[in-house]
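Input record (one chain):
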Amino acid sequence: MILAANVTVQNDNTGAAATSVEFEKAVDADAAANNRTLTVNATTTKFDANVGQVQGLASLTTDAAGTTTLQGNINANQVDFKGGSDPGGERDGAEE
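The corresponding structure, as predicted from the sequence alone:
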């Protein structure tokens, strides 16, 4: 998936958290100069592949209390995970 704009993923336009969001493929920005951001508001967030594999993100944020699971590497200037995590791929409030 290539982000061509700043993206927030959530349940609806009220800001309510989704139950779960899973990215099965790599997530990349379209160009570093665009400073793309990805915010995911979900109880469970899972990244099955690398984030910023080809083109890094300006920031990656998971904003809901819950669990974020990482199966790949992250290339982002700022990383902010809120909620629980699992070291086989999850991070708890970690920044890289």
